[in-house]
Amino acid sequence: MTTTWPTLTQAHDALRTAVAGVRDWDGPTPCAQWTAAQVLQHAAGDQLAYAMFLTGGPGPDGDPFAPSGTLDDAPATLAEEALTRAADAWAGVAADAQDVPVPVPPNALPAEIGVGACALDAGVHAWDLAVASGAPSPLTADLARELLPVARAIVEPLRAYGAYAPALDPQPGDDDLALLLRYLGRRPDWTPSA
């Protein structure tokens, strides 16, 4: 059985695009205390954690929430290994599966929400890396529209662990991307100099 997950593919492609555009891996990001290298390590670690929960295989080498900022491999190599392992793991999950093991509370979700959580993680960190580099967002409003219900389903318990900042109030004129970013505690107008 091979299951295709278009939302996950789009989010993974967004992260690949963002990684390719980063020129300063020591530069600031919307994740206030993390450099671009740390965001990449975190994002890769999260994808590996999803793969580990799904397959029982190896997970990330370290704590994705305490990234070192030292890249031992080429950034594209680090990202690709993690994205490939996560995509391969999700390809083995039936679309109608319930209680799929995931690394976010409650640690078992319906497949559609679980794969959406994995996509959300990749997509939002794609945005983090892109805006940190001054590049356009590879996280589109259409993809954000698909991910917002997933975010609303999983994010609140994660805030207690510091995984997301408090939600910001929506603003008049917000598109779907801005709504998602604000819900995840990010300012859509963030720039490296802000």
TrEMBL record:
GO molecular function: metal ion binding
Gene3D superfamilies reported in the protein's UniProt record: dinb family like domain
Source organism, top-level taxon: Bacteria
Domain Mycothiol-dependent maleylpyruvate isomerase metal-binding: 8-130
Identification of the protein by name: Mycothiol-dependent maleylpyruvate isomerase metal-binding domain-containing protein
Organism of derivation: Actinocatenispora rupis
Organism phylogeny: Bacteria, Bacillati, Actinomycetota, Actinomycetes, Micromonosporales
